[in-house]
Amino acid sequence: MENDSAELELRLAAIEQRLRVLEGTRPGVPIAGLDEQTAELDSKIISSAPTHIGKVLLIFGGAFLLRAITEEQIVPTAIGITIGTVYAVFWLFMALRTGRSPVRRLNALLFGASSVFLALPLFVEATTRFELLSGREGIVALTLFCALSIWVAVKANLKSLCWVVTAGSIATALVVLNTSHSAVETSIFLILLGLGSLWAVYRQDWQGVQWLGAFGANAGIVVLAVLSASDRWSVEVLTPFFMSTVLLAAYVGSFAVRTHLQGRDVGIFETVQGLLVIGISFLTAVIALYVGRDILADAGAMSLILCACAYAMAFTPKTRAARGRNFFFYSTMGLILVVAGSALVVSPGKAAAAWSLMALGMAWFSGRYGRVALSLQCTFLLLAAGFASGILTTGIDALMGDVSSAWPALVPWHVVIALTTVACLFIPVAQRSDRWGVLAGLPQLIVLALSVWEVGGLLVVFFAPLFTGAGGEQTNLANLAALRTAVLAASSVTLAVSSRYKRWPEARWLVYPVLILVGFKLLLEDFPNGEPVTLFVAFALVGGALILVSKLLNRDSIPGPA
Hints:
Elements: H1 2-23, H2 34-47, H3 49-71, H4 77-99, H5 105-127, H6 135-155, H7 159-180, H8 183-204, H9 209-228, H10 239-261, H11 268-290, H12 296-314, H13 317-322, H14 325-345, H15 348-369, H16 372-389, H17 391-400, H18 412-425, H19 442-467, H20 477-498, H21 508-529, H22 532-554
Helix pairs in contact: 1-2, 3-4, 3-5, 4-5, 4-6, 5-6, 5-7, 6-7, 6-8, 7-8, 7-9, 8-9, 8-10, 9-10, 9-11, 10-11, 10-12, 12-14, 14-15, 14-16, 15-16, 15-18, 16-18, 16-19, 17-19, 18-19, 19-20, 20-21, 20-22, 21-22
């Protein structure tokens, strides 16, 4: 008892010394004899290693004695397995009891680890060799023991025991899966194990073990999805999708409790695991589609429901006012889910129109709450709408494409998306932030570029058939080149004028890139295809644009109103 008290006092003294160093108080005042006592304690631990090894050997010796009694049929197999399980749980109880003493933490870890290494093979043999338990019953027994072990690890603050339990349980579950074909039960267990390791980390502020638990949970769903496509396994093809939905809801719900009830910030794990479970959910939907079950609409509806939940968590007063990582995490998750979900539910054209309308709302919220992240989401939605609707491809073909192929048609959805993109420029958004710095204006810069791209392309698409015969039997390439040059030159002047206003200062960064593009276009298209009249028009337009742009950008007068 005296030795234990001395060791405890030494531990407390070491902790006090470390706290003083961290707090910056009395940095140069060492605790008398601390180095010597610490060295003495380390040597005592080393010298006691044979004792610890002896305890472990005695524990396993007792286990082999029970095994011998069972194999010799001194007691029935069922009773022997039961006694072995009780024996393993007893040492788990000893780990809990000794773990309450800081100086006996090593003993607690050895008792707990011995219990795990005794119990897990026992469950495997009870399910496979002795056939006392079915696959489902073996998974239930494993679940109960694993839950008890993690509880002991948390109560006794034994992080290493939690690692051992998690790793051993994943391996044991996979062995039981291979021998009993209990795929669904194994997947459920791995999800519970992942959540258990996550909450153990949240409770004790550990690091690392939640990654291992999440790996097991994710792997369980992926394996289940792969097995559902095999004829040798009786797994319903819809089961992996529903299980992945449970996995996604369970982890997102855990993150929500962590951030909104406990007031903690999300970290790298929450970000990575959130993206992974979303990807796994869509993977299971694709595999179900591959084997003949179309559940993309169900996956889309699920995504939209979770999207609403994510945005609701992002816009709670506490999260919104904190201006931290939680808002960015939940709003970004909501953005990913709404884009993926709506793309699965409706046609690309309708989805693109919906995204462009959502972009208007994001622009308004960005200005309302001063969030650059929402301005970035507005830009992302406009980009997604442009790609999905095909207006960006139409713009490229109209402004620079080869007319030998079919001339792009003027699609009503394209007009709606282009007008929405321009409308987003007239909604005040957050353009200044200490956190974002100079990058705060990047979203608005991209929206300006999209506006030039889309509106310019649609103007050429509309006027080219009237003035150049594009889309007919014979296209006047000289007139088409001049029309394209006129649109691009007008775009550069429009950008220069826009940069004079407080709302679009980023427009000045696009002026000269557009003019450089016009210069290359003169060399590559206007000269080879032009005529004297069209070349005169092209040079006049480009020269006039250069003069106007130079004056507008170099004028020292105060910028106009927003």
